[in-house]
Prior knowledge:
The structure is a single chain. By secondary structure, the protein is of the alpha+beta class. The protein has helices spanning 7-16, 22-35, 72-78, 102-117, and strands spanning 40-44, 47-51, 55-61, 65-69, 86-87, 91-95. The chain has a 6-stranded antiparallel sheet. Helix 2 packs across helix 4. The protein is globular, with a radius of gyration of 14 Å.
Amino acid sequence: MPMLADSKAVDNYIAKVDETHRTLLKELREIIKTTLPKASEGLAWSMPSYWQNTYIIHFQAFKKHVNVYVGPDAVSYWQDKYPELSFTKRGFQLPYDQKVPKEAIKTICLWQLQQYGERDET
């Protein structure tokens, strides 16, 4: 079932995060939206999520980092190719005090789209 698109809910999510962390969230959001222009944006599981035929990517703010969820298949595929990212079982963490790895995020988003999201919706 498709996610209900709701960009305002994502605006509100980011607005509630500590002011010092919002820049990273806004930058991450912009990278995802630019890379996945046809994806619907909204909240799923109480976090910003992007849907294109299926869930492609989500992110969630924590005290010291942002978790970016892409699923275990993507983790298995990318963890050796991006050793600078701190991978978890279902994604990777972005510390607030480090530069956002734009190219890695774009590449992973496009891989996710190719794997799961480029079907015709009929």
